[in-house]
Amino acid sequence: MLRKRRLDNILDALTVTSRLFSEYELSCYWDDYLASIATQAPTPKNPLLESVAFGRFVIETLPADDPHVTLVEYDVTRNGVAAAAAAASRYTLHESPERGLLLLHPASQIVGFMVNVAGLVKAVTSGMTRNAVLDAIVKGPERILFFKNWKRGGVGTLKLGSAVEKSLGLFDGRYSHAELLNRHPHLSTLVASLLTAGVLAPCIPDAMHEG
Question: pLDDT band at residue 133, thresholds of 50, 70 and 90?
């Protein structure tokens, strides 16, 4: 019972993987995973952390060119960012209209995929059958930002174009909103969109006050 509950908690965190594979397949992967770690150091019992370990095991089990790999990688990356954000300094945001530093959480991560992963994830979570999802694969590079959502919590994702990706390096707390737009006025629409989406923090975190 405890073993099944442990798997259920992990699958709750792997929202794409849990819908992609059948219950039988997931149970088999789980049995193999438990056998593989039986002689290793204790594994994290935190469902989020263990979901990353289990997802990586599934990836290593599948052939490198298996189309399922990309979708499991998406789950693993998202949960890895969530775990890193939780382990990082506890930022408490304070309104600061004078400075209003624009900050992308340092746990955020950009990952390149070789298929249309954003569309495939949407297809999986909307209930499309696995065969329909696999038939919808389109090969081609796609870069995704996995970010700590400052507004709603959790981890959000954003499909990146080259211009947006080049701009992300500016959001490291060096500039206030006003300073950034004074230097790069063409970014006003982008900054507004990223603030609305929760990608950027418009305030000064406690950690920066302490520095």
Answer: very high
CA torsion sign for 166, 172, 178, 180 is negative
Distance CA 159, CA 145 (A): 6
Specify the pLDDT at position 21: 96
The two tokens of residue 83 are 């775990």
Residue from 133, 97, 132 nearest 118 by CA: 133
Which domain covers residue 10, as residue numbers? Answer: 2-210
Residue-wise pLDDT tens digits, 25-57: 999 999 999 999 887 767 777 899 999 999 999
Question: How many domains would you assign to the chain?
Answer: 1
Q: What's the CA gap between 19 and 195, in Å, rounded? A: 31
Say if CB 76 and CB 150 are below 8 A apart. no
> What's the chain's length in residues?
211
Contacts for 154 with CB less than 8 Å, ≥ 6 apart = 82
Q: Which of 42, 21, 19 is nearest to 30 (CA)?
A: 21
